[in-house]
Amino acid sequence: MDAKYAFAQQIVKEAGAFLRQHLHDDLLIEEKTDFTDLVTHLDKQVQEELAQQIISRYPDDSIYGEESEQRSSLFQGKVWVIDPIDGTTNFIVQQTDFAVLLAYFEDGVGQFGIIYDVMQDKLYHGGGSFPVYENDHLLPSFVDKPFKAGLIGISAGLFAQENLGFRTIAEKSLGTRSYGSAGISFAHVLTGRLMAHFSNAFPWDYAAAAILGQSLGYSLIRPDGSQLAYEGRELVIFLPTVKIDEVKGVCESCNSL
Amino acid sequence: MDAKYAFAQQIVKEAGAFLRQHLHDDLLIEEKTDFTDLVTHLDKQVQEELAQQIISRYPDDSIYGEESEQRSSLFQGKVWVIDPIDGTTNFIVQQTDFAVLLAYFEDGVGQFGIIYDVMQDKLYHGGGSFPVYENDHLLPSFVDKPFKAGLIGISAGLFAQENLGFRTIAEKSLGTRSYGSAGISFAHVLTGRLMAHFSNAFPWDYAAAAILGQSLGYSLIRPDGSQLAYEGRELVIFLPTVKIDEVKGVCESCNSL
């Protein structure tokens, strides 16, 4: 697993370097579900490049990618989950606050996760049997503190939905922040910049964070506290494991969502 | 004016360097209006240091500071508007995304403004008769594009207030972002990372941005399009001047706020 983990870090960093070089290219931009859901030719190119490198080296493994046409089950065999550019809108408009995300599973068990904040050149990596690092700095486990000593990552849209309990949690905190990249926001939870992050996300958005958080005392769950389906889009919360009961209580109305 | 402008840049950069050195100090934190409205001993110390340096060198000038007990009128004489740490909560929790803000007025006319993004080491400076720079990179004027090609800076709280027109504008855009520092968000408007920023702000939060934006085609206004009072807390929008009519139309309900 060590060689595979080193290989994964290397290809993600190379993908980030490629994106930095092409930051000011003319982009071919397409709409996916609506005018705010964008994909560029670079999302597709990076996805293909990562998948091709993985399959060349590990021909029996399979790929579950944001920009893939076909996706394997995450629960069978050796599966690489790829989000080539998490925060595509930021990539297009801001040229910052976007990430390359990679997670590796064997029969549904996360072995390692990688979140690469490309413009800050910060590689969050580890999970499974590996310690969790920001670059070469070991990340500490969560030390308990109340919500009122932290900040909550949440989009304005999710905050404004009265039927979710999310707003109640956010209002117990020092305030909310919204960065436009789930991967980067989850990384901010790992470093304490955010105490928790609420998102409406796909498996490729949250798989790496879920694996990275485990040994540091963070959980990626549904609002009612149950396990994620790892299929389609779901409301998810990434938070300190010791806070699950507090959030579950507030979010009981979310159970039926 | 050149010497004053150079002096202003120097003391702001020194204040930023001081804050970087004291980033991990034990902070004395006090609540102002409620548990989310915080001030540290470093806000006060930086405010005093800046004020003392200004008055030593320019004894006839006066100070209008966030942490001042007495504030001069902004419309009479030579007035320095200081926010020693804009984004105090970020400073406390995140150790990033905070700014030192300075604006200089003569009889109510802005002569120059400075926003210093301390951790990114980016000094936005200029306005009045000075060109506007990010460090030594000249910033371009706004080039017209529709809201749907940009991002809107707004807090979740302001977005969720149905009686404001802000949500309507935000929903015409690619999405919203919230960084927890008005000064840094206004700077993001100047660089195009945000198309506009909506805030409930005090003069020390927005004075520098208002001066910086003028020659680049940006305006700092009330939601109904009228001029700011530069007194107390007000709902403000920093946006491309060519977009004022579009926002005014949506925000007619804001007139009576």
Automatic annotation (TrEMBL), chains A, B:
Q: Which SUPFAM superfamilies match?
A: Carbohydrate phosphatase (SSF56655)
Q: What species does this protein belong to? A: Streptococcus oriscaviae
Top-level taxon in the UniProt lineage: Bacteria
Q: Where is the signal peptide?
A: none
- Protein's name according to its UniProt entry: Inositol monophosphatase family protein
